[in-house]
């Protein structure tokens, strides 16, 4: 098959990285694959075929006829059997380009989050419904994401499949630090979904019991300065290390005793799989598809959203019960090895594409 992936930007964000890794595995399966990026960027994405940028004007996303034409030209030149839209504005561009310029390839949409969390008005729901009615199939990243999507847009019930995101086989070297120091870690962009304020309050409570514990915050984003100021306000800045963006997150996760994920919105977070992969225990909020990975007493600690006190207690339990923690991490490692490696998941995407192509004949 000829498969075209659309990404938002050449950046090392989850959606773009996964689309690139998936494309690389699809190449290995014998398909012809191309990736086009709506916007420019300087990230070196993990796809040997290269990523071409359309350089559209995203601030005109609702009326960018020139951008829609650029996408149509790329599609008409490549003649793909399927087109997959991967997060951001990719679905808008794919749908409007297809309507205006009448290319024929079916659109697959990768739903990687909880759609209802971003629909705050009747107009937003109507507009997203308009886009989704023009999609041939949806690949949702988790059962929770699928259920949320179908509840919001019931007409998608029979054309949505759950295919999780996954991870790659990777080499890693734990970050060197004093063996007497105990580190926790959080990995994620500084956005409201990741709930950094709640994270810092949880860490404050942990620190009050274990004053020598330290935490790495790996990631960057628009809220970083605000969170740095909040750390000063809570008098815990001395115990935090803001690492910014790091290409080697496994080095940090593998060196930490616990990964914390107190998010308020998630699809199926790859960082949890990465922690499972390197045998670092996870304490996470029960949001989105997190509960499909983290099971209390089996693969980690799963906490009800907004219960910060219970979250802190779980972190302390993870630190204080090494034998139990070791058992959890072995189970978690086995789970990610069995179900969440990209090489395996690429074959599931391949099956969806084949079924879509056959149904369109």
Tell me about this structure.
- With 361 residues, the chain is α/β, with parallel strands linked by helices.
- It has two domains: 2-166 and 341-360, Rossmann fold (3-Layer(aba) Sandwich); 183-339, Rossmann fold.
- 42% of the residues lie in helices and 17% in strands.
- A seven-stranded parallel beta sheet has the order 3-2-1-4-5-6-7, with helices on both faces. A six-stranded parallel beta sheet has the order 10-9-8-11-12-13, with helices on both faces.
- Strand 1 (2-9), helix 1 (14-28) and strand 2 form a beta-alpha-beta unit.
- Helix 1 (14-28) packs across helix 12 (342-360) and helix 9 (270-277) crosses helix 11 (322-339).
- The two termini are 14 Å apart.
The profile of the biggest β sheet is: 7 strands, parallel
Q: What's the mean pLDDT score?
A: 95
As residue ranges, the low-confidence spans are: none
Radius of gyration, whole Å: 21 Å
CATH superfamily of the largest domain, called what?
Glycogen Phosphorylase B
Number of strands: 13
Level of helix content? 40-55%
- Total of domains: 2
Please state how the strands of the largest beta sheet are arranged side by side.
3-2-1-4-5-6-7
CATH names the topology of the largest domain as Rossmann fold
N/C terminus separation: 14 Å
Assembly of the depicted chains: single chain
Order of helices and strands: EHEEHEHEHEHEEHEHEHEHEEHHH
